[in-house]
Specification:
The structure holds two protein chains of two kinds. Chain A is α+β, with helices and mostly antiparallel strands. In chain A, about 20% of the residues lie in helices and about 25% in strands. The two termini of chain B are about 35 Å apart. Chain B folds into three domains: about 170 residues, 3-Layer(bba) Sandwich (FAD/NAD(P)-binding domain); about 120 residues, 3-Layer(bba) Sandwich (FAD/NAD(P)-binding domain); about 70 residues, no CATH class. Classes of the chains: A alpha+beta, B alpha/beta. Chains A and B meet through strand 1, strand 3 and strand 4 of A and strand 3, strand 4, helix 7, strand 25 and strand 26 of B. Strand 4 of chain A pairs antiparallel with strand 3 of chain B, so a sheet runs across the interface.
Amino acid sequence: MHIVVDLNRCQGYAQCAFLAPGVFTMHGEESLLYTPVVPEEQRERVRRAVAACPVQAILVGEEAGTGAR
Amino acid sequence: MLGEPRADRIVIVGASLAGLRAAETLRAEGFTGSLTLIGDETHPPYDRPPLSKQVLLGKVAADRTGLPQRRRLDADWRLGVRAGGLDPVGKRVLLDDGADVPFDRLLIATGTRARPWPHPDEAALDGVFTLRTSGDAAALAARLDAGPRRVLVIGAGFTGSEIASACRERGLEVTVAERGPAPLVGALGGTLGELAAKLQRAHGVDLRCGVTVTALEGDGRLTGAQFSDGTRIDADIAVIALGAVRNTEWLAESGLAAGPRGVTCDAGCRAFDMYGIVTDDIFAAGDVARFPHPLFEYQLLSLEHWGNAVAQAEVAAHNMVSPGPRRRPHLTVPAFWSSQFGLNIKSVGVPTFSDQVVIAQGSLKDARLVAVYGYRGRVTAAVSVNQARSLDYYRHLIETAAPFPPAPGAADQRESPVPVPSDVPDPKLLSHGPTVALTGHLPDRRLTVVQPAR
C-alpha cells in the first residue's frame, strides 16, 4: 500500500495525524509529513485516515508501475 | 484522425507524475488500446516533493517514495531507457537503445532535470550534489548522515531553501548563497522575500545574498567555495539548487515548437509545431509543457508544480481520447506549497504576474499571513504562510478577476492595508531559474531568460 497526499488540497486539519500517527505527522503548525510506503500493520489506520480527511487529500493505492520491466 | 481513438496505440514519454496520471486517466476514460510508458529513470514513478523534506530529514528512505496508482493500467513500461528522438511523420519515438516505438497519439511528459553547476570539473568534485531524482536524494541524505562540517547551498529558490531548512533541522551548519536580493524573491517578490531572509537567519543559516559562487575548491574532494565579494568558506558539501532545465533536447529535430522554455501547446495540451500550427496527435503535459492561460492574459505559462502535472495530465489524456467538441481546456489556477523552517507556504495564482502586493490577513511579524498580489487592479495571486485555510477564498477571487486590493474585513488583519510594489525581479538577477515562467509579451516585463540552443 502506497499513499500520496495532495498538499495543495491539504489544509492541516490533522485528522490523519490523530488516526495514524505512525504514518502522518504534523511538522510545525500546518505542514504534513508522511511515509509514502505504508507498513502492513498501519494499513487499517491509514484507511481510516483516508476516509476521515475533511478535504479528501489522501490518495491510496498499490505502487505504480509494479511489474514494470 | 486515423483509427478508433479509444482502441489504438498511445505512447507516453516520461514516466513520472504527469505520465502516470495521464495513463490512469486514459484507462478511466475507456481507452482500451495499447499503452506504453517510456522513462529514462529505472524506478517506477515516484513522488519528488518528499525528497527535499522527509528524505533529507532522514525520516523516509529515498527509494521509498513510490507513487500509488489509482487503477490497473495494463501498460507496457519501458523504464531505464531514454527517448532520443521523435519522427512525427512516421509517428515513431526513437529510443537511445536503438528501438523505436510506433504511436497513433503521443504524450510528451519528459519534465525537467536539475540545472548543473556550469563548471564540469568543479561539479565532478566529491561532495557536490544536485537534487532532482531519488538517486540524488539518496546520495545527499547519506552524506548528511555522515555529519558534514558545513553545507553550502547555491541558489535560494524553494528547493534550495528546503534543503537549507532540512540541514538546519539536523543541526548542520549551512551557508546559502543567492545572487538575488533575498530567498524566494523570484517566486514571491520583495515583501515575502524579506520575510524568508529573516526566517533563514533566525534559524541560524549563514545567508549571503547579492553574491555568486565564483569557484568550488577541492582536489578530488570539495573543501570550500569562493564568493564574488572576495570571501571564502570551508564546506564539505555543496548542493547546486539553480533551478531546472526542460528535457526537450530529444525533440530538437522533431519540428515541434520545443526548446529551452518547454514544449508549446494549446489550452487543450496539443503541441504546436515550429510554424505555430497545432498538431492533433501530439500532446504535452507537466513541467515540460508551456501553455496559454486566460487568467494571465493568455501568456504562455510553464509551471514546475506538482498540482499542474496532475491537472494538465488529466486534461491531456481526456483530450487524447475525445473528439474535438468534447475536449476540455486546461484552466486550473496554478498552486504549490513549500514547507521550510517550520512554516507552511502555499500559493495560488501566479505571484510573479503582479505589480502590487498587500498583506490581507495576519502579519509579517507573526509569520502568519496571507499576501494578496494584484496586477493592474485585479487579484492575480495569493500566498499564505501558516494560514492555508484562507487560501480557497482568494483562489475564488483570482478565478473571478476580482478587483485589487481586495476588500478589507478579515478579522485578523493587522498590517497596513496599503498595497506596496510586489518587487518581482527579473529572473536573470537570480541564482536559480524561475519555477513559474511567463513568456508572453508585456513590453515592460522580462520574466524569463532566453538561452539559445547550442
